[in-house]
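Format notes (please read before filing issues)

Several people have asked whether sequences and structure tokens are stored in separate files. They are not. Every record keeps both together, in the order shown below: the sequence lines, then the token lines. Line labels are part of the format and must not be stripped during preprocessing.
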Amino acid sequence: MFDVSFLELSVIGIITLLVVGPERLPGLARDVGRIIRKLRRIVTQTRYELEREFSFEEERQRLEQKKESLNEAIDELDDLMEIAPDRNNDAPAQEAKPAKTSDNE
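Then the structure lines:
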């Protein structure tokens, strides 16, 4: 990521030791470690939230496309209903005749 060689890292360590001093160096290292962990956690949470938002956006777009296709199908059905004759009003109501159960009646 940063492409830092061992020599460069050693020079940074020596300069930090001279500036901070050997007494405060372990505390500084702990503090830097905590800060790095917090930053990683923040980056991970932000990445997760962004991925979730993009996933929701993709799902919303997919559902919108399905809604459009369903609306088109409903429009086609409405058109067919206008064209088709109304069979319930044209056909006479048929009553069911009771069936004979025996020949003796």
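For reference, the curators noted about this record: Residues 8-82 form one domain. The chain has a mean pLDDT of 82.
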